[in-house]
Amino acid sequence: MPRTRCYRGGALTDEDFPIDQVAEHLTDPTAVVWVDLCAPDLADLQLVADELGLHRLAVEDAAQGRQRPKFDRYSGHDFFSGYSVQLDVVTGRLVTGEIAAFITPAALVTVRRDETFSIDALLTRWDDEVDLTSLGVGALLHGLLDFVVDGHFEAVESLDDQIEQLEDLLFDDRPHDQAVQRRSFELRKSLVQLRRVVLPMREVVNTLMRRDTGLVPDELMPYYQDVYDHVLRATEWTESLRDLVNTILETNLTIQGNRLNIITKKVTSWAAIIAVPTAITGFYGQNLPYPGFAHASGFATSSILIVALSGLLYVTFKRNDWL
Hints:
Blueprint (H helix, E strand, L loop, with lengths): L2 E6 L2 E5 L6 H4 L5 E8 L3 H11 L3 H9 L5 E5 L2 E12 L4 E11 L3 E6 L6 H9 L2 H4 L3 H34 L6 H32 L12 H64 L11 H24 L4
Parallel strand pairs: 3-7
Antiparallel strand pairs: 1-2, 1-3, 4-5, 5-6, 6-7
Helix pairs in contact: 2-3, 4-6, 6-7, 6-8, 7-8, 8-9
């Protein structure tokens, strides 16, 4: 069901009224109306479009979804598209919730693709900032942008924590090559998806803050500047984490190569030690008379040579860190 609200002077005066009464509420010049549609069909969108005079192209973008984060200007209204994000720490997958918004001088219409975008959390944020709500649609839009960008920041922070755990796993005494490679791929994929969502928001907020848009009054400018600062920090943090994941993958390959070299060195050393008794027993196994042939002294001599030479090689390899 569509959700609606009407604010007058920053105070909530009416809620959950039918969509066809939106125009009636807007007859009051002090009123600001919010309408939310979750997974609407084209008929519901067209009803709102007829009430507020929305552009056909903007309505099509909201109906089709899968838009890149953007801010478009039309005659009489603006259109915003963005994504909320949340990291599933178990699978490393990034869960996104798309939201579109039609922005008019006296109304804000949000369109969600599904329930992934938590509209109740957004309403709580608006209710906690009653003083800002009195500044009109720009205040509602600020609450929406601030909620979306804070979600981006929390996702980046969660990814940072997961990458730190991956670093601990990388340098663990026991090798976890397969786990490190799988987790690195999952986190790298999530970072690429997050970058597609976060990076365009810098242009969106920057455009909104321009004076010619008329959406941000001087009283709200510091709040939008704070949102813009969070966008920049999330963008820079995402870029640095992507480089860090690439470094972890390269380091893991280097560690595997070093581990293989150590194993090869140890196997070669043991093969050299085993070659000593093989050579001595082979020599004494000749079918020719030799000193100690067919006597106990020959067996004792060969045994002493095997133990002495093998022990000498073992000590030598141990001192050179080959074993």
